[in-house]
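Re: [ENG-882] Designed sequences occasionally contain unexpected residues at chain ends

Forwarding the minimal case from QA. Structure tokens:
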């Protein structure tokens, strides 16, 4: 540092002090949408043991760090599906989260299991806008105040208002979301005098992210999940910041802030996405041991040869395979699955039973019904010509049947699917096994 630079910095600090303001640093490490992917992905990224190692490296000698998770810790692997998510929360306790919020898939085993997750977590789980019929909160608290490096950081949890259409109704029963922006702003006002910075930890969609940036100036930092693709760089608007990393544990986010404690807002920031790759870091032994333990519980069931794929199928290609399987196995004329229900690719080469569990971790059932050609939406009939007066059999999942009006591609109402074709995952396993070769 030069003499003049040093003098300028001293003068600036003196001016800040004279104005009564204080600038303190805060580092937010963050994850989202881990989806129970305990082991690394096909691309070599991720895995809970490697993620834990990256977290610990980034936290080492960091006096101003907090670690947040933006929802969907459960659902997405055989371990989670078979044991209803509990082992995933047990292992995640080793990460050292400071706070987390819930994701829609954390409700996939029913709300009572979600309550069990909250009890299992050794860190606070907060969501402000999931309530019962009488207005009581689903989580113990809507927010938590974390103290780090002399800063009081208020973390408000938030769930997308789409929750109703992202869950099978019977899993939620009397619980529902209230307006997310309005509710978060209400709690931000409550936190204003008790904190130096407010952070929204939200499992929200893109439109809701944009609304927060536009309509909630009192919440200057947004750490979000739900959109698995992550951001290439932070989004900023009017001094507010939004960050989100890739799902499935491929990345850890690191947001470094300088916070003006008088204005209660960041004055500067840097954000980076840190790859999680066990070729670059030694996986955490304690987490690796837990992953190995639980994977051993399911390996005999899912690591069995199933079929061979002559090529790789992306998510859109897998959707077509699933619909073909539903038609072939039920005898239906048409089949439909929502694209969001396809959770993985089909790789080229030897396929295991595990691949099907990864594609379809949900316990969704196949249901079917008969409908006139005139009642079939374009997303179901595709380019095939139909006789408007003829009856056709249509197969869908029970999730789709329960949320017809919310399916963007479907946009149907009141179609009754009375036939039951069993678990979709079992149907897919039977179909792949019969096919032997997928091309």
């Amino acid at each position: 540092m030069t003499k003049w630079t040093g003098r300028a910095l001293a003068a600036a600090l003196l001016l800040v002090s004279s104005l009564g303001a204080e600038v303190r640093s805060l580092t937010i490490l963050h994850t989202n949408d881990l989806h129970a992917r305990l082991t690394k992905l096909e691309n070599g990224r991720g895995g809970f043991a490697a993620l834990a190692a990256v977290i610990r490296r980034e936290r080492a000698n960091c006096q101003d760090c907090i670690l947040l998770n933006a929802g969907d810790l459960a659902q997405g692997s055989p371990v989670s599906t078979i044991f209803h998510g509990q082992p995933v929360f047990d292992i995640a306790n080793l990460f050292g989260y400071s706070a987390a919020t819930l994701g829609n898939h954390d409700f996939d085993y029913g709300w009572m299991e979600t309550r069990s997750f909250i009890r299992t977590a050794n860190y606070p789980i907060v969501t402000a806008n999931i309530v019962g019929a009488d207005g009581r909160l689903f989580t113990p608290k809507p927010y938590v105040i974390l103290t780090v490096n002399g800063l009081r950081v208020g973390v408000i949890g938030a769930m997308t208002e789409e929750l109703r259409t992202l869950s099978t109704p019977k899993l939620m029963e009397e619980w529902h979301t209230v307006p997310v922006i309005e509710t978060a702003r209400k709690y931000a006002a409550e936190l204003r005098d008790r904190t130096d910075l407010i952070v929204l930890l939200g499992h929200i969609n893109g439109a809701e992210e944009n609304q927060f940036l536009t309509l909630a100036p009192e919440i200057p930092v947004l750490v979000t999940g739900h959109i698995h693709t992550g951001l290439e760089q932070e989004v900023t608007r009017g001094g507010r910041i939004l960050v989100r990393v890739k799902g499935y544990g491929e990345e850890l986010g690191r947001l470094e802030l300088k916070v003006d404690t008088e204005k209660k807002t960041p004055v500067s920031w840097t954000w980076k996405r840190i790859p999680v790759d066990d070729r670059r870091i030694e996986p955490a032994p304690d987490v690796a041991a837990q992953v190995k333990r639980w994977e051993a519980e399911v390996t005999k069931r899912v690591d069995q040869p199933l079929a061979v794929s002559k090529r790789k199928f992306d998510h859109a290609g897998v959707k077509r395979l699933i619909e073909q399987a539903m038609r072939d196995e039920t005898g239906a004329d048409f089949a439909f699955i929502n694209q969001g229900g396809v959770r993985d690719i089909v790789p080229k080469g030897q396929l295991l039973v595990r691949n099907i569990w990864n594609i379809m971790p949900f316990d969704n059932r196949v249901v079917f019904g008969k409908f006139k050609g005139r009642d079939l939406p374009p997303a179901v009939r595709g380019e095939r010509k139909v006789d408007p007066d003829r009856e056709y059999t249509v197969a869908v999942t029970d999730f789709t049947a329960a949320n017809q009006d919310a399916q963007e591609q479907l946009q149907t109402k009141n179609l009754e699917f009375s036939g039951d074709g069993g678990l979709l995952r079992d149907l897919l396993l039977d179909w792949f096994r019969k096919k032997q070769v997928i091309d």
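QA comment: On inspection the terminal residues look reasonable. The CA atoms of residues 93 and 121 lie 6 Å apart. Proposing we downgrade this to a documentation issue.
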